[in-house]
Design a protein that fits this description.
This protein has a domain of about 70 residues. The protein has a 3-stranded antiparallel beta sheet with strand order 2-1-3. The C terminus is likely disordered. It starts with 5 loop residues before the first strand and ends in a 26-residue tail after the last strand. It contains 4 helices and 3 strands. The chain has about 110 residues and is of the alpha+beta class.
Length: about 110
Amino acid sequence: MADEQKVWAVKFDDRIVQVQDLNAGDLQQVASNHDVRWFVVVDAPLMDLGVAEKVLRLAGAKAGIEVLETLTARQVLDFFVQVDDDVPILVPPTEGGGPLSSGTADSTAG
């Protein structure tokens, strides 16, 4: 059995958004703002905290999750996971919101 290719994704409690499935124009804008190529943003979103935070916000918008305005580096990093390339583009929500919706303080609360 061949190894599955891993890709970067942003994981909320009940939703996963692969970075490669974000809007191409938005990814290009993030890349331009950080003087890198778009594929670097897709392949290495954690290369820069500013890139990671912007990608997190784009993924939150795609998933319908409101991301807190102010985040710590740990909060940003905790959302990024590597998933198999064949994971659905967006895992649909179950009842309730994600970890940063409706005033939840942070992603590390447990």
